[in-house]
Amino acid sequence: MQLRYGFRLYPNGPQRSALAKAFGCARVVFNDALRVREDARATGLPFVTLAELSRRLTASKKTPERAWLAEVSSVILQQALRDLDTAYRNFFDGLKGKRPKVGPPRFKSKRDTRQAIRFTANAGWRITPGGKLRLPKVGDVPVQWSRTLPSAPTTVTVIKDSADRYFASFVVETGPEEVLATTTPEVGIDLGLSHFAVLSDGRKIDSPRFLRRAEKRLKRAQQNLSRKVRGSNNRNKARTTVARAHARVADARREFHHQLSTQLIRENQAIAVEDLAVKGLARTRLAKSVHDAGWSQFTAMLEYKATRYGRTFVRIGRFEPTSQVCSACGIKDGPKPLHVRTWTCGACGSLLDRDINAAVNVAKAAGLAVTARGAQVRPVPVPAQRDETGTHPQPRPTTARQTGIALL
Asked: Which residues pair with 5 in a beta bridge?
């Protein structure tokens, strides 16, 4: 299966300038190619192929208007054309029903706060013996290595986010040695807002509410941003401050999700959660709290970690009456208002907690899945979060700067 590993980069001043030039050149190539295809569509001409776009790119670098494209690695320009081709393919596949619908490709703006370029093996990038990332026409960029890579990567994506932070993203193949030892517990999870997760064994995990706790700091930063003159350097500094505040919230939430999902995967052989209608809940008055919880990100982590480490992951249908069925006797006694948190079953007399009762009912579905599919589950291929060229399994690197890998 493919996994993405991201590491923080710390380029110096000249390297930042070189990366900014590379980001700009890749954006111009993408927009030029998109304009060529849009003009061909408007005039009724055939669809311009990727090979023809590449030929035009090579010719344009010899003209005075686009001669500066030769100042960056040609590989990132070719990858920009491939990104456009992928965007068109996704758009057409959505129209054919092969994947969820997405809009047509759009022009990129130099004011976009997120920029990315990709280097393949042909670019000649590599990790130096000192642990730095050597990029063509950029230099040796310091990297904060937090773990080793499962296999030697063949591509690297350099990303600049909204908070002006730089990251190196590797998509690599992981081998079957990641499967954990078989265990017996099974757990059902009821996700909520007052408690982030309620487990079928009775444990309740409080919701950290990272966004709510940071609201005062975010409010001051956003008020400061609103007072700045548009287009000024001070406004750009204030925008970066706001972006960094939001990045801290997102990083803290992601770390919480990683730690909790890893703990659940290690402790349980089968895990079941409800398939919540997050998009629908995000249109209600609870929208901010729903986004703050990040249920979709958490369940996605559970799913790929279960596949990677040989566990069973089950999604229960959102219309299953988990809160209406008594977990003790199985009698369905109808829906209950949200303010009813505990009640007594009229059939068996059991005192039921609403959230724990729902989690137990979800856990029963997890037990049935283990019985039907077997305790040991064979991992299946899981794609990385974004489309990138993967790698083939190779021996682990032995760079001194790369420390031990953690279960993420």
From this structure: 170
